[in-house]
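Case 499 in the screening queue. Each case pairs one protein sequence with one candidate compound; here the compound is 2-aminohexanedioic acid. For every case the pipeline is the same: read the inputs, emit a complex structure as tokens, and attach any notable structural observations.

Predict complex for case 499.
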Amino acid sequence: MQTAELLEKLGVDAASIRGGSLSVASPVDGQEIARVAQHSVADVATAVSRAKQAYTAWRSVPAPRRGELVRLFGEVLREEKENLGKLVSIEAGKILAEGAGEVQEMIDICDFAVGLSRQLYGLTIASERPGHRMMETWHPLGVIGVISAFNFPVAVWSWNTALALVCGNAVIWKPSEKTPLTALACQALFERALKRFGDAPADLSQVLIGERDVGEALVDNHDVALVSATGSTRMGKEVGPRVAARFGRSLLELGGNNAIIVSESADLNLAMRGILFGAIGTAGQRCTTTRRVIVHESVADELLKRLRKAYDSAVIGSPLETGTLVGPLIDKDSFDAMQTALKNAREQGGTVHGGERVLQDKYPNGYYVKPAIVEMPEQSSVVKHETFAPILYVMRYTDFQTAVDMQNDVPQGLSSAIFSNDLREAEFFLSANGSDCGIANVNIGTSGAEIGGAFGGEKETGGGRESGSDAWKVYMRRATNTINYSRELPLAQGIQFGD
Ligand code: UN1
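Case 499 output:
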């Protein structure tokens, strides 16, 4: 599988992937591909104090110069797109096109951040006092901790890091213990950019490989100004309160339970393609994966017929082979969780198509499944739970308001979409009375967002926003400045104090 060769090309030291205590398996065939050394809790404190020093130097570097480092990193990523994308496929199991697509997201956010490095705007505000001026200034924040999940093992880190760096911060990354190799590769590529840059402080970006205790130490460290955590709602429920207890900031990007409404006026060809990419792409392991379809009863049979046909012809297999659309699940736990969900769905009245394990003979330790379509009589508890696997629940509706209510009636609030050619329905869906998600789309699916928009969602999704728009503000602190250029000292609110 040429993993060692790829890692070498990417600049990862061969010694760092041998003899460590963390076994890394590829989901492609379940075989061990590396043994990586792990950091200890004590290493976290050392990394944070180094990062603090790096930040103290970096915050005085003019932002456009900081942008130059990110520009160089984007250049390195362009050179290594294919290699890094392939490593993502090997370690996370997504197909080559999606592995390369993930690296493209990294390149895009670098470009975005470079532009941003000449902006980072503050407002000027009208003062009520004569001879006074008010303004806002945005300053670097400090050490940023990034905790990321296996399913986007490189892009999520880059969304945070590209912005954090142009904003003048230092970053410490704890990747998923399932995907340390791609993290080591990113760090090596970043170091290549650092060399080209020349005079950046050491330790602007560090990687900590470890399990839960390492993550906890990062979350609890008072010198980590912002913890940006992507993963399950269960993880976020622990991280959020722990960071808040020490008055730190957190940016949470947690579970999704994303629905597509297919209305009676929908273009079914478009809807089909949107649903297919959203539901079976990345083998159902995106936070934006389409997990629910709420379809008007008049088009439900037709849509289901076409969907089942498309599911039957989707090629399941090694993500490294061209032509494959559906790669493996990350591991056995994930497969077991999928089977439990399907069992629950049957018990709750669902009719399950697919969902069984395939290619077992070829890959006894790889977990390949036929993506499942589950017709549900109603939106029962199993549908409201996010199972990180390719299960698509399909429910019918008669009245449009009911469809919107169903879309919103889940604990999560990440992404949502409507396929409709009825302007009234589409606009209602985007209005305050429509979708309650952080992402609401018309005539495109729930997954595959561009980096230019703010990315994240409401409710149990955690409320954080990263990537585009003004998400950079969470990586900076805001100072409100009032400047008096008069010879008086008038108080605000007209207060007379003393003479
Ligand atoms: C994730 O699954 O954590 O919108 C991120 C998308 C991608 C990002 C997904 N741009 O599907």
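Case 499 observations:
- Residues 3-254+462-480 form a domain with the Aldehyde Dehydrogenase; Chain A, domain 1 fold (CATH 3.40.605.10).
- The pocket of 2-aminohexanedioic acid is lined by residues 105, 151-152, 156, 230, 286-288, 447-449 (CB under 6 Å).
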